[in-house]
Amino acid sequence: MPDLNEAQRRWLAGAKVLELGWGGLAQVQKATNLSAPTIIKGIKEVQSKRPLNSQERIRTGGGGRKSIEFVEPEILRTLERILDENTAGDPMSHLRWTHKSTRTLSEEMSRKGYNLSHTTIARLLADLEYSLQANAKTKEGRSPPERDRQFRYINDQVTKFQDKGNPVLSIDTKKKEKVGCFKNSGQTYRPKGNPIDVNIYDFPTLGKGIAIPYGAYDVQLNRGFVNVGMSHDTAEFAVNSLRWWWRRYGHRYYPDAIGWLLCADGGGSNGSRNHAWKYHLQELSNELNIPVTICHYPPGTSKWNKIEHRMFSFISTNWQGIPLESYATVIKLIGGTKTKGGLKVNTRLDKKKYVKGKKISEADMSQISICPHTTNPQWNYTIMPQNGTKKRRVRKS
C-alpha cells in the first residue's frame, strides 16, 4: 500500500472488498484505515472495468484552498515593510529594537490585522527570498582617495620586476598563536568518542610561549617561507625573516637579481611609518648590495595582500583542530602545508629574543638612502645600498 498512489490504493481496496464478499468492507476499512466512502468509490471504479492509468492526474487542477497571499496580496507588501523597518523605517516601530524571529513577525502582523502562524510567516519569507544570514565582515572603513591608483601602481611594479627576473615577495605577520595544550579551532578526524583533551583555560602560564609566524610568499614561484618567532613581532624580526629567506632560497632562485620588490601591509612590524623597519632594511640592502623596493597596500586593504589567501589561509586549514602543543608541532604543521596548485612552504624557528620599543634616532634616519617614488611616496619607496652609491630620488611613473 505505501508504494501506491491515492487512486491505486482505492482500486486495490475496492477489489479486495469484492473478493471477500459480505463483511469485506469492514475488514478492508480496518486493515487499510481508508474511509468507507473512499472504498465504495474504489468498488464502483473496479466494477466499471475502466483501465487504471498510472499517469492519470489524481486531482483536478486548480483545486484546493487558495494561499493567503493570493487572497490578500497586501500581506506580502505589509510583511516587507515590517522587515524594512529594522534599518530604514520609523524609529518608533515595534521591531526597530527586536530580534526578528518568525514568531515575532507573526505577532507584528497580528497588530496589522493579519492573523498568520509562524510557519506561514516562514513560507512567506522564503517566497520573498529572505533567509537566515550571519554578519559578514566586508566593510573596510573609509578608503583613501589614492586607493585605486595605488593598486594599479602595485600591479605595474609587480609586472616590471617579474619581467626582469627579480623576486616579488608578499610579506606579512600571521596571527600570534599560543603554544601549549590549548584548543585550536576546527575539526579533524579521530576515532569516535576520542577527542584530544586540552586545557579548559587559555592562561598563558599554562603554555610554553607564543609563536609568531612571519611569512614571505614568492608570487611567481608559488613558494612560501615562514620564520616562527618566539618573543616579539618587531621590525628587526621582520627584516631578519627576509634575510633568512634570501640566504636559504632567494640567492638560489634569483642569482642574477638586481633588486627585489616587497608588497606589505601599511601597519605592523613592516608598516609604512615604522622607522625601525626602514632602518633595518637599509642594513639588509647594504649587506646584499641590492636595492629593495617596498610597496604598501592602502589602509584597510590588508585582505588583498596575496600572502593572506594564497598561503596563510592554507596553513590555518592544515592545522585546524590540532593543538599546537610544542614549537616542533608548529614548525611541522606549517612545513606540511601543500595545495593542489603546487604551494610548498618552508619554515624555521627563530630563537632570537627581539626587544620591543627600540627607538631609531633622527640622526640614524637621516643616514638611510631612501628614495620615495613620485606615485604615492608615503607608500612606495626604494632603499638603495650604501656601498659608494649616492642618495638619489627614483622617479617612478
Structure overview:
- The protein has 397 residues and is an alpha/beta fold.
- The chain folds into 3 domains: 6-47; 68-127; 148-354 and 361-383, Nucleotidyltransferase, domain 5, CATH 3.30.420.
- It has 13 helices and 9 strands.
- Strands 1, 2, 3, 4, 5, 6, 7, 8 and 9 form a 9-stranded mixed beta sheet that branches.
- Helix 10 links the parallel strand 5 and strand 6.
- The chain is elongated, with a radius of gyration of 35 Å.
- It starts with 5 loop residues before the first helix and ends in a 14-residue tail after the last strand.
In short:
The chain has 397 residues and is of the alpha/beta class.
* Number of self-contained structural domains: 3
Q: Span from first to last CA?
A: 81 Å
Which architecture of the largest domain per CATH? 2-Layer Sandwich
The coarse overall form would be elongated
How helical, in percent, are the residues?
25-40%
Described by strand count, sense and barrel closure, the largest sheet is:
9 strands, mixed
Strand content: 5-15%
In CATH's first tier, which class of the largest domain applies?
Alpha Beta
The gyration radius over C-alpha positions equals 35 Å
How many DSSP H or I helices? 13
**Low-pLDDT sequence parts:** 389-397
- Give the topology string: H per helix, E per strand: HHHHHHHHEEEEHEHEHHEHEE
Keywords:
397 residues; alpha/beta; Nucleotidyltransferase, domain 5; nine-stranded mixed β-sheet
